[in-house]
Design a protein that fits this description.
485 residues; FAD/NAD(P)-binding domain; four-stranded mixed sheet; binds flavin-adenine dinucleotide
């Protein structure tokens, strides 16, 4: 789309899928429920993205209040967890507060978040032992399917390093509620067709440039030729790819590719994910948006009341979800956390009962189950990730290959729909207009001995799940002004 806006017509987009949208696609099943590949919430950090959404969706969206909760100790704790410790049993609340104070005053296991060498130590340094034990460690293992010691701390960034102890204490002592939602936390969602409807419409607007069901089998980086599974070929000047970077380097690139590059890229880590949709023939019992599950009494780390996002996601097409509702559950998988595919639906239903989401007997009203497995679900921000990217990305770019996107760039902190779309827009702006990319957080510099080096900086934009930064609107506006919509 961006290429077209800049007046270019000579480009082709290929996808091996028969549909548009990749991991942001949605599916309506035979029972009439619409599902996303995991809970997709659009918190845009860019004016360009907002404008595109407005142009393509018009007024065909719903506006939802974020209402997120944590389920633990058989109760609902409002998110953010650290501001609502008062909801915990007294002993656990004491452990969390005491650990938080120790950590934030330099008396914890790890003296300062600056000393932390990995995400596990960062958790201890910032949140302290209590929150680490009750929430951060079990929850993060459930999401990432990797021990936090294998992960870096950079993806979280400095912004969460200092917590407001006074606020945490005040809320406990004065018994005040401190919910993380409200008017500033509204999010838009397509009225019909799920998250994927936005991408479907995007595809329609440049349909003549898109070839579906076309699988890339190999790329000769020297000759600049792509060969497809059906034996056909296309040559290119510049290639922008969103396929997983490890697969690209290991299995797809041919020609003069150093073995070390293939080995380096294959050291990138990821987790897989099962998305389990449960359709229920009952009116929705809750106004919640999504919920986090740190405990071991259920296999999922997150469940979304998807039908609360729009009245048109269940068979009750008249709107209003008067007769049906839907729960979308997410279970991670890796070599550190295996999942039995044949049992995951049943374990999910039992987990929903254990976690108090399904009432006794409610399983009899389940009228639909949907299962989707994403081999690549979360790009793990492992300790050595940035060093690997520093080796691999510049090598590819020197050959006209720009790897961008959730698994193309492998940076979870900028891997949501708005970030990945803007990675594409900014790559085009760089190639066509000579602009600097601001989302990927890679800066090229010369080392003292004159070599080229890729240095990682915290991206200039708020990360996945973070609020838009003050000043970002202005910065993004400038980019949008150049966008000639
Ligand atoms: C569980 C989960 C939850 C998420 N939650 C949110 C959220 O709440 N909010 C949000 O904004 N974002 C969320 N996202 C992220 C969002 O889905 C991604 O940002 C977006 O889909 C990434 O787009 P992409 O183009 O980078 O990659 P992808 O969507 O992975 O697209 C890559 C494309 O490459 C194609 N491809 C791969 N190999 C080949 C080949 N050999 N030949 C041809 N084509 C190939 C694939 O078919 C795919 O279509 C979530 C993602 C997941 C998995």
């Amino acid at each position: 789309m961006r290429l077209k806006e800049l007046g270019h017509d000579n480009f082709l987009i290929v996808d091996r899928n028969s549909y548009i949208g990749g991991l942001a696609a949605s599916f309506t099943d035979e029972a009439g429920f619409t599902w996303d590949i995991g809970g997709h919430v659009m918190f845009s950090h860019y004016d360009y993205y907002d404008k595109l959404f407005d142009t393509l969706m018009g007024d065909e969206f719903s506006l939802n209040d974020r209402e997120s909760w944590v389920r633990m100790f058989d109760r609902w704790v409002p998110y953010p967890f650290q501001n609502n410790i008062r909801y915990l049993p007294k002993q656990a609340a004491y452990e969390c507060l005491s650990g938080l104070i120790k950590a934030q005053t330099g008396q914890g296991k790890v003296k300062s978040h600056k000393d932390a060498t990995n995400f596990g130590e960062f958790i201890d340094a910032v949140f302290g032992e209590g929150i680490a034990k009750h929430f951060m460690r079990p929850y993060n293992f459930k999401v990432w399917a990797h021990p936090p010691e294998m992960m870096n701390k950079q993806w979280i960034g400095e912004r969460v390093a200092v917590l407001d102890i006074d606020r945490a204490l005040k809320n406990v002592v004065l018994e005040s509620d401190d919910f993380g939602w409200g008017p500033n936390n509204r999010f838009k969602y397509p009225l019909k067709g799920g998250t994927g409807e936005f991408y479907r419409r995007m595809g329609e607007s440049i349909r003549e440039h898109i070839a579906l069901d076309r699988t890339v089998k190999s790329i000769d980086a020297g000759a600049k030729v792509v060969t497809f599974a059906d034996g056909t070929t296309e040559s290119y000047d510049v290639l922008i790819t969103a396929m997983p970077l490890d697969v690209l380097c290991k299995d797809i690139l041919t020609g003069d590719v150093p073995d070390t590059l293939r080995t380096r890229a294959s050291e990138l880590r990821h987790s897989s994910g099962y998305m389990i949709g449960i359709g229920i023939k009952r009116p929705c019992p809750s106004t919640k948006s999504w919920m986090y599950f740190p405990e071991s009494n259920c296999p999922f780390y997150r469940v979304t009341y998807l039908s609360n996002y729009s009245p048109y996601l269940t068979p009750d097409q008249s709107g209003g979800n008067a007769t049906h509702y839907s729960l979308l559950c997410e279970v991670s998988e890796s070599e550190h956390k295996p999942v039995d595919k044949d049992r995951v639906i049943e374990e999910t239903i039992t987990g929903l009962e254990n976690a108090g989401l399904l009432e006794p007997g409610e399983r009899d009203d389940i009228c639909d189950t949907w299962l989707y497995r994403a081999e690549y679900a979360y790009p793990t921000p492992a300790v050595d990730r940035d060093a690997i990217l520093s080796d691999v990305i510049p090598w590819l770019e020197a050959r006209g290959i720009f790897s961008r996107g959730r698994f193309g760039m492998w940076k979870y902190e900028v891997a949501n729909t708005d970030h990945t779309l803007m990675q594409g827009v900014e790559a085009v702006n760089r190639l066509v207009e000579g602009e600097t990319e601001t989302t990927i957080g890679i800066v090229y510099a010369a080392t003292e001995d004159g070599r080229e080096a890729a240095v990682h900086e915290r991206p200039a934009h708020a990360g996945s799940g973070e609020k838009r930064l003050a000043g970002q609107a202005v910065e993004a506006k400038n980019a949008a002004a150049a966008a000639k919509p």
